[in-house]
């Protein structure tokens, strides 16, 4: 082995990589941008030793080989909108950022696919699909900032999972660079392809621990020609379950979203966030129902008559129906305002859990009481996608900074109850490092052992995003 000082050799190797890829591709020292030091989690930022910004898969390979020669851990980064430190570096690591690997490479109308670079923002993909006469259904509140590669790495969910599934259901092919620098290119467009293992699923949801995704083939869908939305007020959770059943049977494939908000959430957004409520306060729960179809002349009357029938049956205590795109967007504003809770509530801790739909309200009741009784001054609010088994909650103690919030105590109460009720500690945000301690609450020892076996097989030197997930 070449015996050089441990400080000298990494610096020399990074300088050589800068000469190869260009000055803008390798940033070190004071040139490292603050954005590359953390994701959107509330954890403390850590400055990486370098940020490498390749333009293609070969550049990613060059970056990986440089890190391997210098024995430097490296972490892939996209839009950095994650909430679990999955893409955050530790001090001394190298960040391999895909921020310059952006763009739509191809839209194949016959196959209804789009091939994109992994650093492309989700909103860019949505707009490109729309302009081409198609629809890409993945949708998150961070759509303008998050990158599609990060969406894949966390198997993002979002607002329309009930109809279109999680991100992995929207992907046909991948190009990925392995931890040893090998480029695997399988930009498959075939819906039916059973030729051996479907390797893309190894990397989707692995949070950048098994490989770095560089290009993606996405499924496109026919563009909806009609969108209907209603904000409904209901007496209790039994009525919510009945409404979900009625939506599934009465709207069928038109049902695209089913968002539920508990009264504490409604109180916060209407009294503290200044949202003008489409329906009055004082009800047991609130539900945003969205349906998308292909013929407005037929779909809108069908949606209206469906709601009227539910009103006649006494299932709905109140309801407001959107009469325009602006009103639909206003209804979604009620649900999406949670992205601004940092300004509305101040410092708080966000949670993303999975539970059986029938158990949601029981969890909310028990969790709210346990937090209030177990942590002095702890408040919490609850909301979520529900139709796909995903509940979100935020908890906080007023007057405390993010660092002072009793997160460990909150985690123990919330995730302990999740385990007791057979749920998941992460429905769509991933594990990263912030939930790593609690992975065993949702996965068996045998499952975690298999994850470690896969990690060791692909990354025996443990240099790619080490310490994340498992």
From TrEMBL:
Coiled-coil ranges from the UniProt annotation: none
Domain FAD-binding PCMH-type: start-end pairs: 44-223
GO BP term, pick one: respiratory electron transport chain
Gene3D superfamilies: 3.30.465.10, 3.30.70.2190, 3.30.70.2740, Uridine Diphospho-n-acetylenolpyruvylglucosamine Reductase, domain 2, Vanillyl-alcohol Oxidase, Chain A, domain 4
Family designation: Belongs to the FAD-binding oxidoreductase/transferase type 4 family.
Protein name: Oxidoreductase
Keywords noted in UniProt: FAD, Flavoprotein, Oxidoreductase
PANTHER family per UniProt: D-2-HYDROXYGLUTARATE DEHYDROGENASE, MITOCHONDRIAL (PTHR43716)
Needed cofactors: FAD
Ranges annotated as spanning the membrane: none
UniProt-listed InterPro entries: FAD-bd_oxidored_4_C, FAD-bd_PCMH, FAD-bd_PCMH-like_sf, FAD-bd_PCMH_sub1, FAD-bd_PCMH_sub2, FAD-linked_Oxase-like_C, FAD-oxidored/transferase_4, Oxid_FAD_bind_N
One MF term in the entry's GO annotations: FAD binding
Keyword Repeat: no
Pfam families documented for this protein: FAD-oxidase_C, FAD_binding_4
